Structure formats: structure tokens, C-alpha cells
Amino acid sequence: MKKVIYCLLILLIITILTSCSNERDKPVEIMISAAVSLTDALNEVKENYETTNQNVQLTFNLGSSGKLANQIDRGAPVDMFLSASSKDMDTIAAKGLIDESTKVEFASNSLVLITHRDNSTTINSFEQIQPEKIAHFSIGEPNSVPVGRYTKQVFERLGIWDPLQSKLVMGSDARQVLTYVEMGNVDFGVVYSSDTVITDKVKVLAEADDEWHESITYPGAIINDSLHKKEAQAFLDYLTSEEGKAVLKKYGFK
């Protein structure tokens, strides 16, 4: 009987040690809420980073920066926020939700006017937009989508915001606006310059003057409640390294 009990204890110890070993070998998951305009660049960054950092698994929660900021405010289990808007980062920073010492601007972007590749329009500047000649124009929803807020600022500056109201088709993020234009559902759209790198179904007609809208910068920061700050900081350092910057540049970011 004693022999049986001894054997069972040995098996129990082995099971516990094996379980602990497996837990140690399991990659640390870093949950990153990121602006959807970063999708393609981050997918390549993820592949590169995880190849040389096999103890880390990067998981992305993609969406408009405004919605992501609201999720973080409501307690979403996030380690890092990569925003397409300083305003949305500042919103959660004011509530003490980020580690201010980790905040860094890692990219910037520009605003472009696009149309379907088969559209024969001769427009080559934002100033040439004529609301009365347009049936449908897609932009991001200004209250929650940074690209929409920037677009509204441009249209107000040019005096065409009010005349375009009945023509606007709102997108939940820049990629949805891009899709509307790709499918020919709208005449024109405004997206980030980086969005146009991933498609051959649209053509860029013009780039907005930087003075017409607030600066389009991408800040990143670690969330105060993160349980993996060390690993998150290592990834943020990589994103701002020369290797990380090269990938961002490849996908149209400045």
C-alpha cells in the first residue's frame, strides 16, 4: 500500500513540474489595440518580431482610434495602445490610463482624395471638389474616426462641409471608406495615404495640405494596468527602431 501511495506521489510531482514547465514555455501574449490603418504594417512587424522573439505573441485588436480609446476607458484588457490620433491618446492619458513615460510618436500620415481607378474625373485637387456634381462621397465618421475628423476639418476649411452633407456616406474606419471606393459604391473618398498602398483598385487624385487639418501623428503607449510592461516596452522599442520604421515606411507611413 505504501508503495502505491509513493508511486502516486511521484506521478503527482511529475505532473506538477511538467505543468509548470509548460507554463514557462508558453509565449507571453501582448494585447495591442491599434488603429485599423496600421493593419498591414503591423502584420509584417508581427511576423518579423515573433521570429526573433519566440517568447512573445502579439495579438492585435484593430479598429478606429476613438472606439479603441473608449474600450480602454471601459477596462478592456489591453497592454498597449497604438493610435492614429493624438487626441484619442490624450483622452485616455487624462484619465491616468497610460504610462506617460512610455508615450512615443512612431509614425505620421497624410490625407488623400481617392476615386475608383476607372473613374475618368479630371479633379486633381481638393479645391476642385464640386458638391453639386457628386452623388456619393465617403468619409470616416467624424465623431469617432480620426480620418473623418481630419476630413471634416479640410472640408470646413474649403467651405464645402455643409454643401456635402446630403452626399456623405460615413465609414466606421478608413478601411471601410477605402472599400466603398474600391467597390464603386461612391464617387470619391478620403483616406490616409498609407491605405492606398495596399490596393490597385483606386487612384489618388490629390493630397490635402497639412495646414488644413490637425497634424496626423501616431502615438503609442503602454497601458498602466498591463501585466506585461517589460515585454510591451520591448515591442514598442522595436516598432520605433530602424527596422520597425522601415516596415512602416514600406506601407506608406512617414
TrEMBL record:
<dbReference type="InterPro" id="IPR041879">
    <property type="entry name" value="YvgL-like_PBP2"/>
</dbReference>
<dbReference type="InterPro" id="IPR005950">
    <property type="entry name" value="ModA"/>
</dbReference>
<keyword id="KW-0479">Metal-binding</keyword>
<dbReference type="GO" id="GO:0046872">
    <property type="term" value="F:metal ion binding"/>
</dbReference>
<feature type="binding site">
    <location>
        <position position="37"/>
    </location>
    <ligand>
        <name>molybdate</name>
    </ligand>
</feature>
<dbReference type="Pfam" id="PF13531">
    <property type="entry name" value="SBP_bac_11"/>
</dbReference>
<feature type="binding site">
    <location>
        <position position="65"/>
    </location>
    <ligand>
        <name>molybdate</name>
    </ligand>
</feature>
<feature type="binding site">
    <location>
        <position position="192"/>
    </location>
    <ligand>
        <name>molybdate</name>
    </ligand>
</feature>
<keyword id="KW-0500">Molybdenum</keyword>
<dbReference type="GO" id="GO:1901359">
    <property type="term" value="F:tungstate binding"/>
</dbReference>
<keyword id="KW-0732">Signal</keyword>
<dbReference type="GO" id="GO:0015689">
    <property type="term" value="P:molybdate ion transport"/>
</dbReference>
<comment type="similarity">
    <text>Belongs to the bacterial solute-binding protein ModA family.</text>
</comment>
<dbReference type="InterPro" id="IPR050682">
    <property type="entry name" value="ModA/WtpA"/>
</dbReference>
<protein>
    <submittedName>
        <fullName>Molybdate ABC transporter substrate-binding protein</fullName>
    </submittedName>
</protein>
<dbReference type="GO" id="GO:0030973">
    <property type="term" value="F:molybdate ion binding"/>
</dbReference>
